[in-house]
Design brief:
Blueprint lengths: L9 H16 L4 H8 L3 H13 L3 E3 L5 E3 L12 H19 L2 E8 L2 E8 L14 E3 L4 H7 L4 H7 L5 H17 L2 E4 L6 E10 L3 E10 L8 H22 L1
Antiparallel strand pairs: 1-2, 3-4, 3-8, 4-5, 6-7, 7-8
Helix pairs in contact: 1-3, 2-3, 4-8
């Protein structure tokens, strides 16, 4: 996991995050952008105007903004705003029940990309990962998503690995299928442990959800309970997605 630079420029960070959201979630209005970034509509409008000026965004006739020419080819076939809207209330309930942060992710090539995070309210917690990406083979939700791909899709996702590493990942994924969940115990970040399960949606597409917590609070004795809550959340998201079709 990349750490936020100590010298981060907030306006630049907001602009780049907004460009990511246009790719991940599809077209949005100024008010949508303001809500997602937690800024005023006037600030969101200025950010969008600059993205349009630099070809990272473009405006439709209906005044919505979408990913621009420089980002064409990166957009998803199905706007992830549909997935996010369906998942958000269920993720919130998951956080309320477990008192740990929850994430929604999608698979993009060989990476697991965070679509949305619902943070818990505990002082020591895992923070917002929205827009970040991790190698799918080491993240919990990434492994969960890889575990349900068909043979061709899995081969494509692992094509960049050396044969020995590819075989190692395939063995790990067999265990994920057998167990019904995937674990990331400090594989991507020291002091962070996460548990992930897959979510099926949109013509065979797959997403993933995870519970992320400080490793100091992780206990293997609690894994069955956390997995039960994750599976319940995943099924609820799938039902909400089916209702939108």
């Amino acid at each position: 996991m990349k750490n936020r630079p100590s010298y981060a420029v907030e306006s630049v960070d907001n602009a780049l995050l907004l460009a990511q959201l246009l790719v991940l979630e599809g077209p949005m209005r100024v008010t949508d952008a303001a809500t997602r970034l937690g800024v005023s509509p006037s600030t969101a409008h200025r950010l969008l105007a600059m993205l349009v000026y630099r070809d990272f965004a473009e405006q439709d006739a209906d005044k919505r903004y979408r990913a621009g020419p420089l980002l064409h080819g990166s957009t998803t076939a199905v706007p992830l705003s549909v997935l996010r809207q369906a998942a958000l209330p269920h993720l919130q309930r998951l956080v309320d029940r477990t008192e740990e942060s929850a994430n929604l992710l999608v698979l993009t090539g060989d990476e697991a990309r965070f679509v949305h995070t619902v943070e818990c309210e505990r002082p020591l917690r895992v923070g917002d990962r929205t827009g970040k990406a991790l190698p799918a083979r080491v993240s919990s939700a990434g492994k969960a998503m890889l575990s349900v791909l068909d043979d061709d899709a899995l081969a494509a996702a692992l094509a960049g690995l050396e044969p020995t590493e590819r075989a190692k990942v395939r063995r790990a994924l067999r265990a994920v299928r057998q167990n019904g969940f995937a674990l990331n115990n400090e594989q991507t970040e020291t002091g962070l442990t996460a548990i992930g399960v897959p979510v099926r949606w949109a013509d065979g597409m797959v997403a993933g959800i995870s519970l992320a917590m400080p490793t100091a609070r992780f206990s293997r004795d609690r894994v069955p309970g956390w997995v039960h809550e994750l599976h319940g959340c995943a099924r609820a998201i799938e039902r909400s997605l089916s209702a939108t079709n």
